[in-house]
Amino acid sequence: MVARRKVAVVGAALSDCGRVDDATPYALHAQAARRALADAGLDRTLVDGFASAGLGTLAPVEVAAYLGLRPTWVDSTSVGGSTWEVMAAHAADAIAAGHARAVLLVYGSTARADVRAGRRTGTLSFGTRGPLQFEVPYGHTLIAKYAMAARRHMIEYGTTIEQLAEVAVQARANAALNPEAMFRTPVTVDEVLAGPMIADPFTKLHCCVRSDGGAAVLLVSEEYVRDCRTSPVWVLGAGECVSHAAMSEWPDFTVSPAAVSGRLAFERAGVRPSEIDVAEIYDAFTYMTLVTLEDLGFCAKGEGGAFVEKGRLRVEGGELPVNTDGGGLSAQHPGMRGLFLLVEAVRQLRGECGQRQVRRGDGTLPRLAVASGTGGWFCSSGTVVLGAG
């Protein structure tokens, strides 16, 4: 049996993000990819694996062609926001097994610019076919699905709207330290609660921003690490899980598939949640952060509300800094944001985050990070545990 090779992230980058009115999604893919390769100090000729989703009729064929790549290993898994953590798991397995030497994960979207220019409308529904046809007649929009799950948690465990608002407040506090974040002005719990109602109990600031932007991550086999200009960030373990398609088939609105993907990732990495220094968690809505913290094991089920109080998620003084760039609630959210979680986790472990850099109690850089993406309406989850080189 051939020994499995270790896998490292050696390149991580974002394209221009936020308000980008003069670029196509393909251009953002290319910009992020070039920057990730430059970050690693490797030539694109080394890349023999490619993963992309969300753009083109034949993703990732069209994007690979646009980038001038001819990969011999590809992945087009599309499971919403968790796509990129799931793809990272697949890529790591492929590299470890010797099926690829360097895999590039790329995403780009002009979600904000397209709405502004009238090329698309806001995403209220994923469609009316298949299982979804039984929910659409009742006005069950995408946001309403998350809102209903949040309300169930509030009824079941006494979670308060103020506790959910704290997630938005602390995300904005972290964004204030990030010069690239879209919104940086601090907000209070009262300001979150006073905003316009979007879907009860969510007001505007309980919901993610809409932005443009792209991201890219390069994973390589251990033998190429010595040729890179950056310190490696090792993929220690990963897990994935899909749950339900229709809300009526979701066994428990208070338990997300991260309960499974997280357990698998931590077991395979050989670490405990209590050892994690920084967490990057998908946050299209405040409730996603809260319930994912529970399901990853950072607190017990039903205790997420109490856990997020008292600034625990902040870069400055927080016990578990979460979404250190400001997350989808404040930094950027161009659609399937899971790849941005991996980029931020890598940068934190390499100590490249400037004012928002997380430090452990002894002043040293973080050693362990987790990135956990959620797709659909808690339909899928991918979790990746990363370790500093």
Give your account of this protein's structure.
The chain contains 12 helices and 11 strands. The protein has helices at residues 25-40, 61-67, 83-96, 111-116, 142-157, 161-175, 189-193, 258-269, 286-295, 304-308, 327-330, 338-350; strands at 7-14, 49-51, 73-75, 102-109, 197-199, 202-203, 213-221, 233-242, 278-281, 368-375, 380-388. Strands 3-2-4-7-1-8-11-10-9 form a 9-stranded mixed β-sheet. It starts with 6 loop residues before the first strand and ends with a strand.
Question: How is the secondary structure organized here?
Answer:
Blueprint: E1 7-14, H1 25-40, E2 49-51, H2 61-67, E3 73-75, H3 83-96, E4 102-109, H4 111-116, H5 142-157, H6 161-175, H7 189-193, E5 197-199, E6 202-203, E7 213-221, E8 233-242, H8 258-269, E9 278-281, H9 286-295, H10 304-308, H11 327-330, H12 338-350, E10 368-375, E11 380-388
Parallel strand pairs: 2-3, 2-4, 9-10
Antiparallel strand pairs: 1-7, 1-8, 4-7, 5-6, 8-11, 10-11
Helix pairs in contact: 6-9
- The helix-strand sequence is EHEHEHEHHHHEEEEHEHHHHEE
Radius of gyration, whole Å: 19 Å
Overall number of strands: 11
Taking pLDDT < 50 over at least 5 consecutive residues as the criterion, the unreliable ranges are none
Structural class: alpha/beta
- What kind of oligomer do you see? single chain
How much beta, percentage-wise?
15-25%
| Global outline | globular
The level of helicity is 25-40%
Give the biggest sheet.
9 strands, mixed
- What is the end-to-end distance? 27 Å
Please tell me the overall pLDDT: 95
